[in-house]
Design a protein that fits this description.
alpha/beta, GMP Synthetase, Chain A, domain 3, six-stranded mixed beta sheet
């Protein structure tokens, strides 16, 4: 273990490998040139607070070390969207990035150095300031201040937990970004402080990661990636990694077992927060394994069941109250749910008040309430009271496309995990006598399930009618048809024909006598289809067909009772 100043000014081997990019080593000498080159340029611009946004982990390291060299603060936004940067615009002077900069004077593009235009110096780790932003319970981004000294202290603790499992020359690779604390701590500071090389690229897709040489590596991944592993696995003739590291949300037993089998490697879960750093860890060797406190972390349970802690990786020495409820058990502690309105969606911390506030800013919405649905894998759901303008758009677009339109209100500032996937549109929110929203009533709106597809558009020409329908994945008729390949059952399709004909062609339900139907293709959920209905008055028949684009999926005839 060493102080990061030693990496820049120490007498160590300059040919040692700091990182790899596309298989090519990046040496300690290059890191020193790059830090010196960019520090000189940033100093010339009098940058005091740099907002670091990079795709490449190596360039993130260069940016932070260069800013520390000139005594500037490092600022990391909540995510890399433009909206997130704009929301904290008062906190930074200059965006420091590895992406091509336009003519904007507030963007600084990092560049490779060929010399050392300034002499690198030792820095006071306690004076090097690093600030991250995360979701706050008020809906506004919450600033969390740290120092280089705290990050280095956490790297020492990580080494105590994982050092015996990962060889000194084992690479640190993964799917998580360094823009969040988990990736920053485990994929950047830990290898920098211990001399292990890290992979500069962030592998968004499994296929990219599996193409890397993972032999003896520590693979830093997110729960969301592990849950989408599918049937991929490391080839049996490849050397397996030393371990998998996951953080952000607890993994279910099935996901943990599948991951370990696919990579032929043990899995270590990390529990922590942006405010406190690493809180606990556990190797997933059995179901419901208890957590162990991270080295130096002191834990207690509050009277309300909330987990309390004192952390050597957090600013100050005060007790910190988390919003996680916990219980002490032999060998450690277990987590038993959240006490606030911050939820984990695909391993990302999502503030329900923040998303509600963003949606409420739309002129299409009069009121909104969010809940998280599900057990192991949470899904964000929204109950919306449309405004007058929103009601008109809902009638014009239909529920499915209106929900998609509302998601666009979030796209500029929030990641996909923070966007609702399920929607209900109501005349008023369910509230109790004191005006508090009744959570059980919100949940019941979704527990009722959907019995009809979403109507996206309707076109009528006399006795002929066309309806564009979206087969939502939560349709109750999909239950049992079939678990591994859900399809829309034929009986449901016929039922919808009768109901839509009664509703829009004034044909009463009891008029359906018998029918003939032919199924040409399977009708699948999460698809948009067109239902064509034609009332043949002379022959007392209702002709119908479901098609997707120009392909007929189902067609048939229903004989109607004489009127």
């Amino acid at each position: 273990m060493h102080d990061l100043s030693d990496l820049l000014i120490g007498s160590g081997d300059e040919s040692s490998i700091v990182a790899y990019r596309r298989g090519q080593p990046l040496l300690r000498s290059q890191l020193r040139h790059d830090v010196a080159h960019n520090a000189a340029r940033l100093a010339a611009l009098n940058c005091r607070r740099g907002l670091v946004i990079t795709e490449d982990t190596y360039w993130c390291a260069v940016a932070m070390l260069a800013l520390f060299q000139i005594g500037a603060d490092v600022i990391l936004p909540q995510n890399t969207t433009t909206g997130a940067s704009n929301a904290i615009q008062a906190e930074w002077d200059l965006i420091v990035t590895d992406q091509p900069a336009d003519a904007a004077t507030s963007v600084f593009e990092l560049g490779a150095g060929v010399g050392r235009p300034m002499e690198l110096k030792a820095v006071d780790a306690k004076a090097c300031r690093l600030s991250l932003f995360t979701s706050g319970s008020t809906g506004e981004p919450k600033r969390v201040d740290k120092t280089l000294a705290l990050m280095q202290r956490e790297a020492v603790a990580i080494e105590q937990v994982l050092g015996a499992s990962v060889p000194k020359d084992g690479r640190i690779v993964g799917t998580v970004t360094h823009q969040h604390l988990f990736g920053l701590s485990f994929k950047l500071f830990w290898p920098l402080c211990t001399g292990r090389p890290f992979e500069a690229a962030v592998h968004e897709f499994w296929e990219e990661l599996l193409a890397e040489d993972l032999g003896h590596a520590a693979v830093v991944v997110s729960p969301a990636h592990l849950k989408r592993l599918g049937d991929l696995e490391l080839a049996t003739n490849h050397v397996p990694p030393s371990c998998l590291l996951s953080a952000g949300a607890e993994l279910g037993d099935d996901s943990a077992a599948t991951a370990q089998k696919a990579f032929h490697a043990p899995l270590c879960e990390i529990y922590g927060s942006t405010e406190t750093g690493m809180i606990g860890w556990r190797w997933r060797s059995e179901a419901n394994e208890p957590w162990s406190a991270a080295p130096g972390v002191v834990l207690d349970i509050g009277a309300d069941g909330a987990l309390l802690l004192r952390s050597p990786f957090a600013s100050g020495d005060a007790w910190v109250r988390t919003e996680d409820r916990a219980e002490q058990v032999p060998g450690g502690f277990r987590l038993i749910g959240r006490a606030d309105r911050i939820v984990k969606i695909e391993g990302k911390r999502v503030s329900l008040p923040e998303i509600e506030a963003a949606l409420a800013g739309s002129p299409l919405i009069a009121a909104v309430a969010l809940i998280a649905l599900g057990d192991d894998e949470l899904v964000l759901a929204a109950v919306v009271v449309p405004s007058v303008a929103g009601s008109a758009e809902l009638a014009r677009l239909g529920a499915f496309r209106f929900g998609r339109l509302l998601r666009q209100c979030l796209a500029s500032r929030h990641e996909a995990a923070a966007m609702p996937r399920r929607w209900r549109f109501v005349e008023e929110l369910p509230v109790g006598p004191l005006g508090k929203i009744r959570q059980a009533a919100l949940r019941s709106l979704f527990n009722q399930g959907k019995t009809e597809p979403d109507l996206l558009a309707m076109r009528r020409n006399g006795d002929a009618l066309e309806l564009d329908l979206f087969n939502a994945p939560e349709l109750l008729q999909l239950d049992g048809h079939f678990p591994n390949m859900p399809i829309v059952p034929g009986v449901a399709q016929i039922d919808w024909v009768v109901k839509f004909a009664a509703r829009h062609l004034d044909l009463p339900l009891e008029s359906a006598q018998d029918y003939q139907v032919k199924f040409h293709r399977l009708t699948l959920p999460e698809t948009t289809v067109t239902l064509a209905l034609t009332h043949d008055r002379d022959r007392q028949r209702l002709n119908f067909s479901y098609r997707r684009a120009d392909v007929v999926l189902t067609s048939g005839v229903i004989r109607l009772a004489p009127t």
